[in-house]
């Protein structure tokens, strides 16, 4: 089945309120262009160098989302063009994004990543850290970042009840944040294996790769 056909099937399952981020990491430009010509405009990458190379060569109306863990010393490479950074997992990182965005006279939209999984390997803030960031004067004075929502990754498990519980927990934090901070509109949760549960629990943005492009190429 072609990438175009897979996209059509996938988008039929998604409501208009849910944004599809096509996860194109490790995929060649040809595959991205096939999705692009099928109407897809939002792509997610997890390595800044790879994403930057693709941004330089592919159509400029593509929205590039950084969905992987971001190292502070590499923010400068994506500050010029990135459309959304999903995984802001520390105040120090948010400050660096603000600093680099200022150099390009941009306001970069960001999602704060909340740790909801039972796995220690996942990055993210807890509720206390989230409150500390939002309550700080430094955050309120930032002019070159805009927090537009939250992102979270569920535990990698076959226990779907646990996955649902974790997504539901993130939704409660999101709803609380939306009451406190204007402009909150994005809840990024759900990937190829669990996006249907994520949408049922209130996700507005899903990150899907293998269901569109096939298995990842690690070579």
Radius of gyration: 17 Å
Q: What is the helix fraction of residues, given as a range?
A: 40-55%
User: Approximately how much beta-strand content do the residues carry?
Assistant: 15-25%
End-to-end gap: 23 Å
| Count of DSSP strands | 8
**Structural class estimated from helices and strands:** alpha/beta
The total count of helices amounts to: 10
| Biggest pleated-sheet summary | 8 strands, parallel
Shape: globular
- How do the strands of the widest beta sheet line up side by side? 7-6-5-4-3-2-1-8
Mean pLDDT: 95
Q: Can you characterise this structure?
A:
The chain is of the alpha/beta class and 219 residues long. 42% of the residues lie in helices and 17% in strands. It has 10 helices and 8 strands. It has helices at residues 3-13, 29-37, 48-57, 75-78, 91-103, 127-135, 137-140, 160-180, 195-200, 210-213; strands spanning 19-23, 42-45, 63-66, 84-88, 108-113, 145-151, 186-188, 205-208. It has an 8-stranded parallel sheet. α4 links the parallel β3 (63-66) and β4. It starts with a helix and ends in a 6-residue tail after the last helix. The mean pLDDT is 95.
Features:
8 strands, alpha/beta, 219 residues, single chain, 8-stranded parallel β-sheet
Describe, in short, the structure shown.
The chain is of the alpha/beta class and 219 residues long. The protein has helices spanning 3-13, 29-37, 48-57, 75-78, 91-103, 127-135, 137-140, 160-180, 195-200, 210-213, and strands at 19-23, 42-45, 63-66, 84-88, 108-113, 145-151, 186-188, 205-208. β3 (63-66), α4 (75-78) and β4 (84-88) form a beta-alpha-beta unit.
């Amino acid at each position: 089945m072609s990438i175009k056909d897979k996209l059509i099937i996938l988008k039929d399952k998604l409501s208009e309120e849910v944004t599809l981020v096509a996860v194109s990491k490790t995929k060649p430009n040809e595959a991205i262009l096939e999705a692009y010509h099928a109407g897809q405009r939002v792509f997610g990458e997890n390595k800044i160098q790879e994403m930057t190379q693709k941004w330089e060569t592919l159509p400029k109306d593509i929205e590039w989302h950084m969905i992987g863990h971001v190292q502070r010393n590499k923010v400068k490479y994506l500050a010029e063009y990135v459309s959304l950074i999903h995984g802001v997992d520390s105040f120090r990182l948010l400050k660096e994004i603000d600093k680099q965005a200022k150099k390009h006279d941009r306001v970069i939209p960001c999602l704060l990543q909340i740790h909801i999984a039972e796995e220690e390997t996942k990055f993210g803030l807890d509720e206390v850290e989230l409150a500390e960031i939002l309550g700080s004067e430094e955050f309120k004075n930032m002019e070159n970042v805009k927090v537009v929502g939250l992102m979270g990754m569920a535990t990698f498990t076959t226990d779907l009840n646990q996955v649902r519980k974790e997504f539901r927990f993130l939704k409660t934090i999101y709803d609380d944040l939306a009451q406190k901070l204007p402009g909150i509109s994005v809840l990024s949760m759900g990937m190829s294996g669990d996006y249907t549960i994520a949408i049922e629990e209130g996700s507005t943005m899903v990150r899907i790769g293998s269901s569109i492009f096939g298995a990842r190429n690690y070579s």
